Amino acid sequence: IDKNEVERGMVIAKPGSVHPHTKFKGQVYVLKKEEGGRHTPFFNGYRPQFYFRTTDVTGVIKLPEGTEMVMPGDNIVMEIELIAPIAMEEGLRFAIREGGRTVGAGVVTEIIE
Protein backbone atom coordinates (compact mmCIF):
# COMPACT_ATOMS: atom_id res chain seq x y z
CA ILE A 1 0.00 0.00 0.00
CA ASP A 2 1.35 3.38 -0.97
CA LYS A 3 1.20 6.22 1.59
CA ASN A 4 -0.80 8.46 -0.77
CA GLU A 5 -3.56 5.81 -0.96
CA VAL A 6 -4.35 6.17 2.76
CA GLU A 7 -6.42 9.00 4.24
CA ARG A 8 -7.46 9.98 7.75
CA GLY A 9 -10.23 7.71 9.01
CA MET A 10 -9.34 4.70 6.85
CA VAL A 11 -8.67 1.34 8.51
CA ILE A 12 -5.85 -0.89 7.29
CA ALA A 13 -6.41 -4.53 8.17
CA LYS A 14 -5.71 -8.04 6.99
CA PRO A 15 -8.25 -8.90 4.24
CA GLY A 16 -11.40 -10.41 5.72
CA SER A 17 -10.49 -9.57 9.33
CA VAL A 18 -12.61 -6.41 9.70
CA HIS A 19 -15.98 -5.74 8.10
CA PRO A 20 -17.81 -2.44 7.54
CA HIS A 21 -21.26 -2.09 9.10
CA THR A 22 -24.01 0.53 9.18
CA LYS A 23 -26.44 -0.71 11.85
CA PHE A 24 -25.62 -1.58 15.45
CA LYS A 25 -26.75 -1.36 19.06
CA GLY A 26 -24.74 0.75 21.44
CA GLN A 27 -24.66 1.37 25.19
CA VAL A 28 -24.59 5.17 25.40
CA TYR A 29 -24.06 7.70 28.17
CA VAL A 30 -25.50 11.14 27.36
CA LEU A 31 -23.43 13.93 28.93
CA LYS A 32 -25.15 16.32 31.34
CA LYS A 33 -25.19 20.07 30.77
CA GLU A 34 -22.56 20.44 33.53
CA GLU A 35 -20.28 18.00 31.66
CA GLY A 36 -20.52 20.06 28.46
CA GLY A 37 -23.36 18.04 26.97
CA ARG A 38 -26.85 18.94 25.80
CA HIS A 39 -29.22 21.10 27.84
CA THR A 40 -32.30 19.39 26.38
CA PRO A 41 -33.42 15.81 25.70
CA PHE A 42 -33.31 14.18 22.28
CA PHE A 43 -35.89 11.99 20.60
CA ASN A 44 -36.26 9.16 18.08
CA GLY A 45 -34.71 10.13 14.75
CA TYR A 46 -32.01 12.38 16.29
CA ARG A 47 -29.13 12.68 13.74
CA PRO A 48 -25.81 13.55 15.41
CA GLN A 49 -22.25 12.80 14.23
CA PHE A 50 -20.66 9.56 15.44
CA TYR A 51 -16.87 9.50 15.83
CA PHE A 52 -15.13 6.12 15.49
CA ARG A 53 -11.33 6.21 15.85
CA THR A 54 -10.47 9.20 13.61
CA THR A 55 -13.49 9.25 11.31
CA ASP A 56 -16.94 10.73 11.72
CA VAL A 57 -20.25 9.85 10.10
CA THR A 58 -23.86 10.94 10.58
CA GLY A 59 -26.20 8.39 12.11
CA VAL A 60 -29.88 8.12 13.01
CA ILE A 61 -30.86 7.04 16.51
CA LYS A 62 -33.73 4.64 17.16
CA LEU A 63 -34.78 4.53 20.80
CA PRO A 64 -36.02 1.32 22.47
CA GLU A 65 -39.76 0.63 22.36
CA GLY A 66 -41.51 2.57 25.11
CA THR A 67 -38.76 5.21 25.40
CA GLU A 68 -39.93 8.61 24.18
CA MET A 69 -36.83 10.67 24.90
CA VAL A 70 -33.32 10.55 26.33
CA MET A 71 -32.33 13.10 28.97
CA PRO A 72 -28.82 14.44 29.61
CA GLY A 73 -27.24 12.12 32.22
CA ASP A 74 -29.08 9.01 30.96
CA ASN A 75 -27.48 5.64 30.20
CA ILE A 76 -29.36 3.82 27.45
CA VAL A 77 -29.01 1.06 24.85
CA MET A 78 -30.05 2.40 21.45
CA GLU A 79 -30.02 1.28 17.84
CA ILE A 80 -27.96 3.41 15.47
CA GLU A 81 -27.97 3.39 11.67
CA LEU A 82 -25.06 5.17 9.98
CA ILE A 83 -25.35 6.81 6.55
CA ALA A 84 -22.03 5.20 5.50
CA PRO A 85 -20.43 1.88 6.55
CA ILE A 86 -17.65 1.95 9.15
CA ALA A 87 -15.20 -0.82 10.06
CA MET A 88 -16.34 -1.82 13.54
CA GLU A 89 -16.59 -4.68 15.98
CA GLU A 90 -18.30 -5.23 19.31
CA GLY A 91 -16.51 -3.34 22.06
CA LEU A 92 -15.48 -0.42 19.82
CA ARG A 93 -15.92 2.92 21.58
CA PHE A 94 -17.39 5.99 19.90
CA ALA A 95 -18.26 9.59 20.68
CA ILE A 96 -21.47 11.37 19.77
CA ARG A 97 -21.01 14.98 18.72
CA GLU A 98 -23.30 17.83 17.78
CA GLY A 99 -22.36 21.34 16.75
CA GLY A 100 -18.68 20.87 17.57
CA ARG A 101 -19.13 19.48 21.07
CA THR A 102 -19.28 15.98 22.52
CA VAL A 103 -22.77 15.17 23.80
CA GLY A 104 -22.39 11.44 24.48
CA ALA A 105 -20.07 8.45 24.62
CA GLY A 106 -20.80 4.85 23.82
CA VAL A 107 -19.62 1.37 23.02
CA VAL A 108 -20.84 -1.01 20.28
CA THR A 109 -22.69 -3.88 21.99
CA GLU A 110 -24.17 -5.71 18.98
CA ILE A 111 -23.68 -5.57 15.22
CA ILE A 112 -27.03 -5.73 13.38
CA GLU A 113 -25.93 -5.33 9.74
UniProtKB/TrEMBL annotation:
Q: Which Gene Ontology molecular-function terms are recorded?
A: GTP binding; translation elongation factor activity
One GO CC annotation, please? cytosol
UniProt keywords, alphabetically: Elongation factor, GTP-binding, Nucleotide-binding, Protein biosynthesis
Q: Does the keyword Ribosomal protein apply?
A: no
Occurrences of domain Translation elongation factor EFTu/EF1A C-terminal (ranges): 17-111
User: Sorted alphabetically, which SUPFAM superfamilies does this protein's record hold?
Assistant: EF-Tu/eEF-1alpha/eIF2-gamma C-terminal domain (SSF50465)
* UniProt name for this protein: Translation elongation factor TU
Q: Where does this protein come from, organism-wise?
A: Caldanaerovirga acetigignens
